């Protein structure tokens, strides 16, 4: 049984809203690096049962890929408390994926939200 969740435009928002920590693998069946990354991602999902590991098939869900500006696959994204805290294209080796998960776990989300609010305030001032 797979420990990853197939994300679609129908369940994506609900999944991200209902879970405070979601990893998302944007992939496609024709993508060689995606196939190489899949077992690494599955293993990480098994080793982190408290986290949600989602997969978005960019061929079947082009709207989701477009909504996140996915230009190359695989792309790994991490969403915490409905905030994208990490996004990087490329198949990560196992050690790098483990490290990224650890870093994302250790983020202080209050600090992240504060930084985003400050950035948005600055952008608002520049626009005016």
From TrEMBL:
Cellular component terms per the entry's GO annotation: cytosol
Question: Would the keyword Transport be found if you checked this record's keyword annotation?
Answer: yes
* Keywords noted in UniProt: Disulfide bond, Electron transport, Redox-active center, Transport
User: Which protein family is named in the record?
Assistant: Belongs to the thioredoxin family.
A Pfam family of this chain: Thioredoxin
Q: Which Gene3D superfamilies match?
A: Glutaredoxin (3.40.30.10)
Specify the protein name: Thioredoxin
PROSITE patterns from the UniProt entry:
THIOREDOXIN_1, THIOREDOXIN_2
> Which top-level group of life is the source organism from?
Bacteria
- InterPro entries per record: Thioredoxin, Thioredoxin-like_sf, Thioredoxin_CS, Thioredoxin_domain
User: Which stretches make up the Thioredoxin domain?
Assistant: 3-106
Q: Name one GO molecular function term.
A: protein-disulfide reductase activity
> Is the NAD keyword given for this protein?
no
């Amino acid at each position: 049984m797979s420990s990853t969740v197939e994300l679609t435009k129908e369940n994506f928002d609900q999944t991200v809203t209902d879970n405070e920590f979601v990893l998302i693998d944007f992939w496609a069946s024709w993508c060689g690096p995606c196939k190489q990354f899949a077992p690494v991602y599955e293993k990480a999902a098994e080793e982190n049962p408290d986290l949600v590991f989602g997969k978005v098939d960019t061929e079947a869900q082009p709207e989701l890929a477009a909504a996140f500006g996915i230009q190359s696959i695989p792309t790994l994204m991490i969403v915490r408390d409905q905030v994208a805290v990490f996004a990087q294209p490329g198949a990560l080796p196992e050690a790098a994926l483990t490290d990224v998960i650890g870093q994302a776990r250790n983020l202080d989300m209050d600090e992240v939200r504060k930084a985003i609010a400050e950035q948005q305030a600055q952008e608002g001032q520049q626009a005016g």
